[in-house]
């Protein structure tokens, strides 16, 4: 299928010969088999779960400081006597892991396995014993947190969780080499996802390092841009590819492993992505922040472009947006670049490429989303820049 540009907000969509039903099929995958129908129905069950069963649990309460001064809430006793509201099933190749299995994988979510906080929860390292003398498989586990006292936002967690599973099971996402592979999940007493990725370093870890040189910085940028272009062509907006959510291997190949705000679009009319999101404030586009204030929470393809522009600024200035809170990172970047506060400022062979990349980044973060380039245009620009050679004072230092 010929690549189609995402539509600029406010303009009618132009789909050519691609019908709305075809777009829906591309986005959601083809659910025609009995197994796929079963999976779809199961995810709908998850979406409509009563979150109280997961929130009002004894282990959640015992980890709360309130447990020292308050008696055990009646809700906990009541929900403990209930069975699990839904029985997990294997979702194709994605296995359902029981609560006990999750405890085994993560050593009961021990502090030694803790990585960092994540949107809606925390990330942990884990190991799966595959037997037959094979070494344990290293995985990353994302667990949703339910803390006491009860937070009203927890009521939306089943929707978030079901939505994330939908995206991760999407054949376009599941088969993409730049996306961390989901191998398991848990809905037994907890919400958790198990990814087949060894998270040693993230782009956030690398950005301030001097040995993260210009060439690998641009390699990361190019891979992220290609990934976004691919998904925009499939009518999927990732909405979450911030520096802390991009894993990098020893050859600077990326994998995206956070998908909380992944959303899709299957409309011939107004190209808006509606979602309820949290975290990563400094990566939000101005139009998204406006929509939040107006209780619409709308994410556009151009919002992805804005976030990519921020990533280019981070790579160029060797500074993460999350570390500049609550400063407006774009305004800070303009001043910092003018003061020559950038990666390896004394290496003149990359002075010109830095300037060109900075200019491209500023196009991506323009206030008016209609003025931002499409991802296919960004990839073409990066390709053009990469043709220069270092020895000719080119773009890859």
Automatic annotation (TrEMBL):
Location of the region described as Disordered in the Swiss-Prot/TrEMBL record: 1-22
GO CC field: plasma membrane
GO function terms (MF aspect): ATP binding; protein kinase activity
InterPro entries (alphabetical): Kinase-like_dom_sf, Plant_Ser_Thr_Prot_Kinase, Prot_kinase_dom, Ser-Thr/Tyr_kinase_cat_dom
UniProt-listed PROSITE patterns: PROTEIN_KINASE_DOM (PS50011)
Transmembrane parts of this sequence: none
Keywords: Cell membrane, Kinase, Membrane, Transferase
Gene3D superfamilies in alphabetical order: Phosphorylase Kinase, domain 1 (3.30.200.20), Transferase(Phosphotransferase) domain 1 (1.10.510.10)
Location(s) in or outside the cell: Cell membrane
Record Pfam families: PK_Tyr_Ser-Thr
Domain Protein kinase per the UniProt entry, residue ranges: 109-385
Entry protein name: Probable serine/threonine-protein kinase PBL17 isoform X1
Native organism: Coffea arabica
Gene that produces this protein: LOC113717717
């Amino acid at each position: 299928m010929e690549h189609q540009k995402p539509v600029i907000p406010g303009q009618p969509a132009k789909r050519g010969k691609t019908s709305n039903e075809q777009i829906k099929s591309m986005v959601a995958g083809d659910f025609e088999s009995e197994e796929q129908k079963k999976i779809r129905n199961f995810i709908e069950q998850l979406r409509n779960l009563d979150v109280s069963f997961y929130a009002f649990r004894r282990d959640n309460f015992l980890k709360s400081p309130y447990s020292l001064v308050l008696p055990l809430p009646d809700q906990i006793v009541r929900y403990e006597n209930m069975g699990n509201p839904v029985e997990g099933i294997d979702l194709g190749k994605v296995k359902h892991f029981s609560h006990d299995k999750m405890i085994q994988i993560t050593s009961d979510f021990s502090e030694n396995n803790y990585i960092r906080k994540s949107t809606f929860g925390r990330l942990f390292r884990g190991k799966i014993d595959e037997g037959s003398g094979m070494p344990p498989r290293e995985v990353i586990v994302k667990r949703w947190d339910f803390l006491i006292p009860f937070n009203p936002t927890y009521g939306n967690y089943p929707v978030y969780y079901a939505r994330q599973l939908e995206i991760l099971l999407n054949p376009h996402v599941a088969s993409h080499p730049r996306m961390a592979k989901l191998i398991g999940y848990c809905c037994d007493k907890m919400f958790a996802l198990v990814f087949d990725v060894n998270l040693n370093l993230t782009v956030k870890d690398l950005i301030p390092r001097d040995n993260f040189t210009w060439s690998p910085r641009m390699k990361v940028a190019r891979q992220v841009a290609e990934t976004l272009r691919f998904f925009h062509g499939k009518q999927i907006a990732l909405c979450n590819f911030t520096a802390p959510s991009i894993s990098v291997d020893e050859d600077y190949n990326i994998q995206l492993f956070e998908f909380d705000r992944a959303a899709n679009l299957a409309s011939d009319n107004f190209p808006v992505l509606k979602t309820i999101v949290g975290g990563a404030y400094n990566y939000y586009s101005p139009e998204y922040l406006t929509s939040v204030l107006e209780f619409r929470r709308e994410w556009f393809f151009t919002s992805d472009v804005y976030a990519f522009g921020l990533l280019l600024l981070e790579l160029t200035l060797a500074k993460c947006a999350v570390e500049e809170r609550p400063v407006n990172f774009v305004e800070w970047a303009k001043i910092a670049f003018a003061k020559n506060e950038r990666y390896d400022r004394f290496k003149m062979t990359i002075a010109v490429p830095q300037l060109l990349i900075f200019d491209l980044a500023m196009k991506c973060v323009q206030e008016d989303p209609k003025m931002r380039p499409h991802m296919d245009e960004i990839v073409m620009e990066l390709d053009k820049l990469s043709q220069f050679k270092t020895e000719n004072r080119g773009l890859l230092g």
